[in-house]
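Intended use. Records like the one below are meant for learning the mapping from a protein sequence to its folded structure. Do not use them to infer anything beyond what is encoded.
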Amino acid sequence: MKKTILNDFRFFDSDEKVRKIAHQLYLKVRDLPLISPHGHVEPKLLANNEPFPDPTELILIPDHYLFRMLYSQGISLESLGIPTTDGTAVEKDHRKIWQVLGDNFYLFAGTPSGIWLTYTFAEVFGIREKFGPKTAMKIYDAMQKKLQTKSFLPRALFEKANIEVLTTTDAASDTLSYHKKMRESGWKGRVIPCFRPDAAVNLYTKAWKKEIDTLGSVCGKEIVDYKSYIQALESRREYFKSYGAVSTDQGIESPYTHRLTDGEADAIFQRALKGQATEKDAAAFIAHMLMEMARMSVEDGLVMQIHPGSFRNHNKKVFDRFGADKGGDIPVQTEYTRNMHEFLNEYGNNPKLTVVLFTLDETTYSRELAPLAGHYPALKLGASWWFHDSIQGMTRYRQNITETAGIYNTVGFTDDTRAFLSIPARHDLSRRMDSNYLAGMVARHMISMDEAAVLGKALAYGLAKKAYKL
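Structure written out for the chain above:
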């Protein structure tokens, strides 16, 4: 039976000189604590601290990276046990589902998902057999046995991974009850919320009015106009800060920004309350709210994150049956220089603001984003995100950004994961790729080994800690 042996030199350059330097740099950052300033792990997981039900529930069902690949090969999401929103029955036999993953694991060769899962098997569970059709059930049983032990409870795994801080992503109307539960439990793990108002900002979605009603309810005041709406958002931001929040986040398709007058904003808001808002109204309101969120961040100190460039829920059939975040989000071409001109001229020079900007459009790295971040003091560039959180994606990111923006106008690594156990795997890959990039600069005599060591620690730990005020 083939064994899984993780080569300690994995992912480094094939050039022997670079490879050796990369390994030396990696060893200096390998054991640093993990800063996870943006992600989608459910706080309920750590609040309840209950045993994971089984490997399928832990590994496959929450991870759209995995099931989107299987779906692309004609394997239905129903057969993978992905919960539906329309009541359609799904496969309940998790052992059967796990075997499907084992039978098709060859599909993940060379992908980040394959790398992360292999790391999880070997480093987290201590499993040395190579995962595949013949070993799937043996590995399932070995994992299941360990998942019933105290050392594999969520909080124990959090501590074992050496996570210094984990940020969840929470709607503006969230009561943060699970964060409260964690706080009251006395557990010392640092898990903090992130204020994400998308559902309350995108007024063209079907659920917008319901979100506004919920937002008003948790604020204890009915939202009847634009003024009361803004007051509610400001109130919720303060509430999030009381639970340790350091950041906000907005997921948008276009980074277009433009300030409306209060009268113009209220007119759109009133149309939305009546169900009469148009798509044009929604775009104008989002552009305005980006300006408003920056204004609020200047006042309350929360770091502002912007995640543009995703065509959400592209596959309508999947969205209608399974809901959002089921692997159907696709990148779109995105422009920043003109779209963010008004925003950056109003806020980009303000020392009280930090804006972390991400992209799914790699063509903008050297043309727009690096020059913008290399000039505006308030702007930092987020890590290579989502589809580009990969070996080649990280390499392209550094190659296209560093010469113009430098290292210190970026924020290190952000794992952005829903799959809890992939956090250490993702950070390990990032640390290896950054070490490899810096090793190339050392080998070419662009920087010294001492400089590379300092930069490596900044990329692995220091930049995220500083940018997110952690």
